[in-house]
Amino acid sequence: MPLLLPNPSSPLPSLLRHRLCSSSSSYAAAVGGFLLRSGHRPDPPQLHAEDSRVVLGCGLVTLDYVATVDAYPRPDDKIRTGELQISGGGNAGNALTAAARLGLNTRVISKVANDETGATVLSELSEAGIDASHVIISDGGNTTFVYIIIDKQTKTRTCILTPGDPPMVPSDLPMSSLSAALQDVSLLYLDAYSPEMELAVAQQGWLAHQMKIPILVDAEQERTKEELEGLLSLASYIVCSGNFPKNWTSIPSLPCALLEILLQYPRAKFVIATLGEKGCMMLQRSDAGDDSVVDAADIEVVADSLKLELHKDDTLPTCISSKTMRLSARGLCAILGRLLIGTAEVIPVSELVDTTGCGDAFIGAVLHALSTEMPPEKMLPFASQVAGIKCRAIGARAGLPWRSDQRLAKYL
């Protein structure tokens, strides 16, 4: 059929509806809109006494229309889709889904409109095990939706995002509701999509009642310095794409740029740059009070040495770390810490399906690793393995609970 993507404001064709939920009755309830029209929200998942701590995410949730095509269309082309799948998406939605599928209790602050797309997004969040009771529902406007075209030939994806309206702002969430959302939270995740709102959440989590909840910030390439500065100044952990450090610091060397980021933001315990099929690089800050460390080295020299030691023939993710030392670079101060390099899983071309949401899945795994006090040497291969599982499925939230996947057995 021609590549004519659905109109999210119109009722969905019955053939597509069936893909969204595990049963026709649950789908009818969601798409019929009663969740929104009646003012009813999904009930938060019941927590067990032994795992009452919660990971709270604030940011973007969407509905994704994922069309797979043999090749990306040229101007004025009419082509056929090989498959069309509809699923929840958005940075916060994807990362929290990954964390929930790995066994964490998750909660989200986001915003949808009082439309059928919003109803579907709420239903999908609830089915994923995410507490969506703090999602804001606007009376008018539209919920964010994304058209994603997956090119089977080049293994690339093109995203066309229609932003939600009205946007999420701090006045949407009264202080009493924000305090309730922060109850029992042990880790806060911010995707920087709504920086003004997320800064308000971060400040409340850091200051109120001396909770000082640790904060992981996903430093998105699309955000401006003005939008990100406040969030990064409060960040305990920073995860970003490989191009972000260079663009943020104007330093072409990735190890030196990571060093500069930790110098700029002294609260941050580590920064991770994801590098796609090349893996990732992490700079971890060590305790400032450790005076026993006397070794010093140029961080670029350390990075080059680690790359030589990597087992590049391994198909499964691996990680190699420097020892703790005083790392410096020309023109930059030194920090006490260590550099880690992780490889990505080697996925055969025949198994590579959709890279949409792989970075979010990586972050979801990092959230799990932090919550379970997993050491970095184990965390980086684990997160890469989770991202690899996502690469093998269509749709950002596709697949069964990842905790049951045998490829993760040695980590969990």
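[next item in queue]
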Amino acid sequence: MMAFKEFSKITGILPHILSKRNFISLAYPRRSFLPCSTCTTQSVHVPSSNVTFSRGTLLRSYSSASDTEINISREQLKQLLASRTGVVIDVREPWELREYGIIPGTVNIPLGQVDLALQLNPEKFKEKYGGDKPSHSDNIVFSCLAGIRSKKALDTAVSLGYSKVQHYPGGFEDWAKNEVLPTKH
């Protein structure tokens, strides 16, 4: 019971702390942070991410795309690569690409570098990663080994304002099972 009372105190003051220190805008640097005009002083609403903090509660709902809109199939990925209508970013570590192989036509940006890479100027991006930097309106597909890291990369890109992002949930494992891979020399 004591822990519940302490938790209640924290959740009661958390919105006030967050609104004063603007932590939400740090978490979502490209999104607006505006107090909700219909809320009491104890409530804060972040319209672009549909997060509402109010005394004692945290409400969060996503109005973003469904999984069927953010997931891309192997066939769709093949079409995108063939038509060059988007950028496919493999977020595995370089040693994984050397060890297991690559999906031809992808740009390698390890997951830990995605945030900074997508904020580089185009010249530095090309110099460091060997491909053209995608614009905020380009189609971007993230891939990894099995779809976990690519989803995290997608979330990072969305937080940076990229609007046409997807990920290949099957990742390289699915690709390797179903496609003819180039042989290592």
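[queue empty]
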